[in-house]
């Protein structure tokens, strides 16, 4: 087995920073799989729980501010069985997603975006965790390309998205989403651009895992 088969790159990102784009570009260049929303499908297959319930729970949790509480439920690997009334609880659905992420890290090289993957895989030696951020003006510029909003409405939308990500991360990890110490590499896409972000991740991987890591 060559080294390439062991490498997993996780990407957390501010809304509008282009972290998803960087992840897609990286996976294409390296010829490895990119996982984002597909993680829900994998968790559904793993648990036997309908994929629609994962999506519905995500949406309800977002609308009801489920994670916007002082309470946390730090992920510890526990999965509740189908005989429990909590089998389809938001916490257990997250645990199945986490299990799917671990399975990927143990079986194939890939890029994983979001879903607290950096925390879930924090004890894996084959993982490089990345956080992509950018200055306000750059975030607004990029967000405006995909959202039909402008000015304060766009700012409010982006702030809401990042607040949800921060709350989701805090709830499941007990940590601060934007804290640089959670990641191996933090990149300012506004200064670097997407292509140089990809190059920076590859360079860091070579420093971390060896020059022949992608051979």
What share of the residues lie within helices?
Answer: 40-55%
Strand content: 5-15%
CATH superfamily: P-loop containing nucleotide triphosphate hydrolases
Major β-sheet strand ordering: 2-3-1-4-5
Q: Give the total of beta strands.
A: 5
Which series of helices and strands comes N to C? EHEHHHEHEHHEH
Per the CATH scheme, the topology name is: Rossmann fold
Count, helices:
8
Low-confidence stretches: none
Number of domains: 1
Query: CATH class, anyone?
Result: Alpha Beta
Q: Which descriptor suits the 3D outline?
A: globular
| Structural classification | alpha/beta
- The assembly state of the depicted protein chains is single chain
Mean pLDDT across the residues is: 92
Tell me about the largest β-sheet.
5 strands, parallel
**How far apart are the first and last residues' alpha carbons, in Å?**
11 Å
Q: Assign the CATH architecture.
A: 3-Layer(aba) Sandwich
Radius of gyration, in Å, reads 17 Å
3D structure, described in words:
With 215 residues, the protein is α/β, with parallel strands linked by helices. It has one domain: P-loop containing nucleotide triphosphate hydrolases (Rossmann fold). 51% of the residues lie in helices and 11% in strands. The chain is built from 8 helices and 5 strands; from the N terminus they run E-H-E-H-H-H-E-H-E-H-H-E-H. It has helices at 19-30, 38-47, 51-63, 90-107, 117-120, 136-143, 151-173, 189-209; strands at 8-13, 33-35, 110-113, 127-133, 185-188. It is globular.
Q: Which structural traits does this protein have?
A:
5 strands; alpha/beta
């Amino acid at each position: 087995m060559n080294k390439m088969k062991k490498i997993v790159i996780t990407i957390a990102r501010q809304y509008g920073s282009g972290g998803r784009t960087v992840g897609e570009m990286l996976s294409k260049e390296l010829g490895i799989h990119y996982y984002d929303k597909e993680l829900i499908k994998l968790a559904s297959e793993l648990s036997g729980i309908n994929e629609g319930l994962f999506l519905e729970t995500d949406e309800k949790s977002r609308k009801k501010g489920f994670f916007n509480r002082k309470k946390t439920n730090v992920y510890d690997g526990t999965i509740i069985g189908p005989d429990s009334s909590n089998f389809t609880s938001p916490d257990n659905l997250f645990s199945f997603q986490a299990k799917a992420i671990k399975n990927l890290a143990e079986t194939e090289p890939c890029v994983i975006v979001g879903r607290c993957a950096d925390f879930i895989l924090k004890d894996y030696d084959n993982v490089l965790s990345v956080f992509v951020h950018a200055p306000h003006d750059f975030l607004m510029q990029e967000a405006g390309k995909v959202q039909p909003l402008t000015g304060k409405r766009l700012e409010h939308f982006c702030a809401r998205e990042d607040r949800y990500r921060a709350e989701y991360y805090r709830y499941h990890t007990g940590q601060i989403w934007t804290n640089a110490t959670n990641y191996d590499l933090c990149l300012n896409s506004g200064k670097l651009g997407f292509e140089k972000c990809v190059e920076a991740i590859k360079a860091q991987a070579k420093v971390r895992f060896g020059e022949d890591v992608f051979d």
